[in-house]
Design a protein that fits this description.
The chain is α+β, with helices and mostly antiparallel strands and 114 residues long. 18% of the residues lie in helices and 33% in strands. The chain has a 5-stranded mixed beta sheet, with no helix packed on it. A 3-stranded antiparallel beta sheet has the order 1-2-3, covered by helices on one side. Strands 4-7 form a two-stranded antiparallel ribbon. β1 and β2 form a beta hairpin. The radius of gyration is 18 Å and the shape is elongated. It starts with a strand and ends with a strand.
């Protein structure tokens, strides 16, 4: 059995996940918590946020995030892939900065106009 604290909503439920019983989850107060508990043990994923350099913008860096969660073990590789990117202003919120991050199908998108 593994114990987790759910991060899906502000309640922060203390989950217990039985790995030997088809990932049965207890301690959750909502269905999203049960899904989080199962997913966290089978294939943990996260939405990644970072920044990239911008030339000619109001600020020297533009915030970006992945369009969908990516496998947790690829987070550092994904952020490293951003290090060589430099955008030129203007940048629009929602603009794709990098397609198919580490072969996951998720894109890095700008989260602010610059």
């Amino acid at each position: 059995m593994r114990e987790l604290i759910c991060i899906v909503c502000p309640q922060g439920c203390r989950l217990r996940v039985e790995e030997k019983q088809d990932y049965r989850v207890t301690g959750n107060r909502c269905a999203r918590g049960a899904e989080y508990g199962r997913t966290e043990l089978q294939n943990p994923t996260r939405t990644v946020t970072s920044t990239v350099a911008v030339r000619g913008g109001m600020y020297p860096r533009c915030p970006v995030k992945t369009s969908a969660p990516i496998p947790k073990h690829l987070i550092f590789k994904a952020v490293e892939a951003l290090s060589g990117i430099e955008l030129r202003a203007p940048v629009k919120m929602g603009q794709v900065v990098m397609y198919d991050v580490c072969g996951t199908g998720a894109d890095f998108i700008a989260t602010r106009d610059m």
